[in-house]
């Protein structure tokens, strides 16, 4: 099926809403990045997504991966060739550091790249999905010899990498992992870089085997002899599929899963049998090494939500304009009187129009939230001012679980609503929309389930670090102040209603602050309380962020010379405010008005 | 995968909540139906669902149907044999009239049968899904010769039937249908029973071809020469696959759809080429003939939602009790202190517990709504009192779009939430839950999309027939009065909080009445208004019905000698009241506090 990259909408957010080029200018690492370069990168990325991987998406879903006896996995037709083209284009290295062979481009551009890749072909994009994390893990933790041997190959994309965390009994609870590793030389000190053998079983390993690269670099969580129980006894080990001397290592794919979606992605059951490898980072500090890359990995998963939301919304919008059924109860001003005798486009029917407006308002708002977070991440890593870096780091830590969970929620459920616009045609394969629903579902689960994101947000990022939320409150109130200033100085009397938006954002900030204080106060007597409403809190905060994003979009639209775009954005912002925000308010109300008990039923 | 029929919970609703046996006693047609017979029927049906078709469900999803050149469809392995067993068991004829060869059992029992069949295997259940509708259509409309030739075969299940409505350009808008029919004898009068030939293309025809029965009876909407445009020019035609003289008729299956789910159900593209058939009912009155069977067909689709909700909830509940991950922030009273050192069942984690309670409260409430509607349908068709029949008919007409849309919504989205309880395991095929998500999605679309149900409810059933809603308001207020009486006469001081439930139901009724009056008043100046909020209205009303259902369950539980069941039901009713109802209130608020405008964006 076809995919159209939303280049113009992406650029509008990058340049007009966030003014990312101004932020890049303040960071010496990005001295050579400007709006023109960003446009060029996105255009080329869009072409790759549209021309190379989008045409493979539907067929790969039907064909799936094949597990061959002996354990070799065959990916769908065209996947290996598309990978070679990706490598030749230099795409794997986009955000990696130049000293490691990367292009050193901002995370923001990498986020936009992955929005398009996932919108075009989620399954294919699973293969490079963990590259950046693997680069970070190897780059930060490997001893020089290991780093030299593996990092350039992974940065260039010549070899792909995997993350081996989950085991049959250890999913969200990695502390239950049983895979063992044993030093090869019992007499040598067990330190970073030490040679070990790994034995155990891992499941749900994306790309655990594939036919796209000659070698695969497995990063495996395993337990050294005598290691403590739980998560504090896990060591990260680098285990290549092919050893440096050319031998086949004992890392075997015993089968692949039959899944709801992303069928072109091989989800492997891995068996490590005396597999040779080397410790990556400090012994027993494997989980911390993994979590180092969690911010970018979770942001990445959030981009998957946005990619599906954008792509599914575009399919539904196009269909709704072309499909003629029944007469609408009213017609848009200026619609053709002659055509008015026949059936109308279903986009004119209020039930469909409302869904389309919901989807489009969410898509535009979600993109602002995601790109803003990516820009903050760039500043957290590259800004010359250490205090600003620290502040940005805190804000990113707060926003990351929201981006991961809220955007994947919007992406999956939005794709499902978009399917409904196509009716029976949405349920069949041809239009590609049911595949978006299936493919997007996994993003709510992996990299920490959305329920775990909600607990991470409320417990670790908000309640246990009271200062951190203040950063976000300040963002909301600063925007309100800017809106007010613009409303007061507007020559034409604030027709866009900026002052009303300012009041709304102040109200959102006050509610957020009050609800958080309520939870902070009541949790002492009721330790369960935050766990009961973590999901409500995350979704309510997501809507607060959408309100902020719509205000930013509205402000950016004011000076826009493109009248059609200006009108569209203003309509979508008003729609979000009037239709979507009120439907989420009950979550704050629940938190503030007393959270009911949760029963222990005989299940 | 396995399926466990919820016999005990079904019986509780039939006997304790609704006291259906008392209603049956009042209807001479059901003189022989009592609680024992009902139990016997349900037990046998449950055994069929569990033993015969549930084991085929997962494999059939992977295998799908095969279209063979020449147009013959092969259904999944085991489907034809299961059909023969169904026919031999006399199940197809369950609700059909005894004079037509049926068993004349209540719709309520047929509804319960289909809840189990769909929970066990939705795809297989598509084949008999339209049987009862076809029986009604042929029984009511066919001339005697036609009736004699086809009705017994369809009632017995020897032949299956299809409904041919949709065409590529005519989905929700059947008035756009182009399939033509032409009298064979141009000189003969064009009347009911006249021989015609049919030519045209139909799509999305469930069971359009299959290898389960020797013949297929297609009911086709087509247009006679000179017929009016639109829906008033459609004629229903009976077109057998095999003609009475043994010739193959010109009804060809040109292909089957690749779908998101119900893959074992053949969704056919049909080409009628000079196919021979006979007019069924009055010429140009085909749509009315179709709509005659819509109430039971839509109730049937609602049962599909319930079947998926029940089955998915059961899988998730079982998984959550067995799966041990992480320590829960608190433990149920009396839990084993020794086990408390290790990880806890995920059912103890608040985020999971809340999902499970949501799902179980909705399942129990939805079953009461569905069975009650089925019982009302039985009374509408079989009660000796004509006035009561008319009243029941009106109430069923009001409830039907809610049962269809609201229950399928709960079923699909509930299955999706249940998937989340299983995490990564939910995303793979083995547990069967992702299949429930995919299979259940279609029920929101077919037999009139849920958006069309919402418009049907609000426009045709409520606003255009002001008296009809009063019937439901009376039900709510009667229940409130009963609750109050029981609360007052309770010897133990109303510990179950019946008086609070009474107040809640009165409040629901008042809100429903007020919101409806608001819409009635404002639609004159704003004709679009009901279309903008029809979906909100349906879902809000669905929750009002859930509130009523929980009150009924609670009342029925009071005298229950089974303490575990009593406590479970009381916990679920309280959960629904405290957690679910407040999350839906904003829909009424929107309707009452002024519905915003809906923009016409440049999509």
UniProtKB/TrEMBL annotation, chains A, B:
Domain (Acetyl-CoA dehydrogenase-like C-terminal): residue spans on this chain: 488-564
Domain (Acyl-CoA dehydrogenase/oxidase N-terminal) ranges: 39-158
Keyword line: FAD, Flavoprotein, Oxidoreductase
Residue ranges of domain Acyl-CoA dehydrogenase/oxidase C-terminal in the record: 344-458
All copies of domain Acyl-CoA oxidase/dehydrogenase middle, residue ranges: 163-274
Family: Belongs to the acyl-CoA dehydrogenase family.
Protein name: Alkylation response protein AidB-like acyl-CoA dehydrogenase
């Amino acid at each position: 099926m076809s995919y159209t990259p939303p280049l113009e909408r992406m650029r509008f957010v990058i340049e007009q809403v966030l003014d990312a080029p101004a932020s890049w200018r303040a960071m010496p690492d990005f001295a050579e990045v400007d709006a023109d370069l960003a446009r060029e990168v996105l255009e080329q990325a869009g072409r790759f997504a549209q021309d190379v991987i989008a045409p493979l998406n539907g067929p790969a879903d039907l064909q799936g991966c094949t597990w061959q006896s002996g354990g070799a996995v065959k990916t769908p037709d065209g996947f290996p060739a598309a990978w070679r083209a990706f490598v030749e284009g230099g795409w794997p290295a986009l955000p990696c550091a130049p000293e490691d062979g990367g292009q050193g481009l901002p995370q923001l551009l990498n986020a936009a790249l992955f929005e398009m890749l996932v919108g075009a072909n989620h399954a294919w994009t699973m293969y490079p999905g963990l590259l950046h994390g693997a680069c970070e893990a190897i780059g930060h933790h490997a001893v020089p010899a290991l780093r030299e041997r593996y990092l350039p190959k992974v940065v260039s994309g010549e070899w792909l990498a995997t993350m081996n965390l989950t085991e049959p009994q250890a999913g969200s609870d990695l502390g239950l992992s049983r895979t063992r590793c044993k030093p090869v030389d019992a007499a040598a000190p067990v330190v970073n870089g030490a040679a070990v053998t790994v034995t155990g079983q891992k499941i749900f390993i994306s790309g655990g085997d594939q036919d796209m690269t000659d070698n695969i670099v497995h990063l495996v969580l395993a337990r050294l002899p005598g290691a403590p129980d739980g998560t504090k006894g896990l060591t990260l080990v680098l285990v290549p599929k092919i050893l440096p001397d050319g031998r086949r290592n004992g890392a075997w794919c015993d089968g692949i899963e039959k899944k709801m979606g992303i069928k072109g992605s091989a989800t492997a059951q891995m068996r490590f049998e005396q597999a040779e490898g080397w410790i990556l980072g400090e012994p027993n500090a494997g989980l911390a090494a993994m979590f180092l890359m969690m911010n970018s990995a979770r942001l990445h998963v959030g981009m998957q939500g946005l990619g599906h939301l954008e792509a599914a919304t575009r399919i539904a919008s196009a269909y709704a304009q072309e499909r003629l059924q029944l007469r609408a109860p009213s017609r848009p001003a200026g619609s053709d009187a002659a055509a008015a005798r026949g059936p109308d486009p279903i986009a004119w029917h209020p039930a469909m129009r409302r869904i389309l407006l919901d989807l489009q308002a969410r898509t535009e708002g979600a993109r602002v939230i995601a790109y803003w977070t990516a820009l903050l991440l760039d500043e957290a890593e590259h800004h010359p001012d250490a205090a600003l870096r620290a502040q940005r780091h805190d804000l990113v830590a707060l926003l990351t679980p929201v981006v991961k969970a809220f955007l994947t929620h919007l992406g999956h459920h939005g794709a499902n609503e978009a399917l409904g616009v196509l009716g029976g045609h949405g349920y069949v394969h041809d239009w590609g929309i049911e595949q978006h629903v299936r493919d997007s579902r996994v993003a709510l689960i992996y990299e920490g389930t959305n329920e775990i994101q909600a607990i991470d947000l409320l417990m670790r990022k908000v309640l246990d670090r009271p200062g951190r939320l203040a950063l976000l409150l300040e963002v909301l109130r600063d925007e309100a102040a800017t809106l007010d200033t613009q409303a007061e100085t507007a020559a034409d009397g604030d027709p866009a209603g900026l002052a009303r938006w300012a009041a709304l954002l102040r109200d959102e900030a006050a509610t957020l602050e009050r609800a958080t204080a309520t939870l902070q106060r009541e949790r002492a007597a009721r330790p369960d309380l935050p766990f009961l409403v973590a999901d409500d809190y995350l979704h309510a905060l997501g809507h607060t962020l959408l309100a902020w994003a719509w205000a930013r979009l509205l402000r950016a639209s004011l000076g826009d010379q493109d009248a059609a775009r200006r009108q569209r954005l203003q309509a979508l912002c008003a729609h979000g405010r009037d239709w979507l925000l009120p439907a989420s308010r009950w979550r704050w109300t629940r938190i503030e008005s007393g959270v009911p008990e949760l029963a222990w039923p005989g299940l």
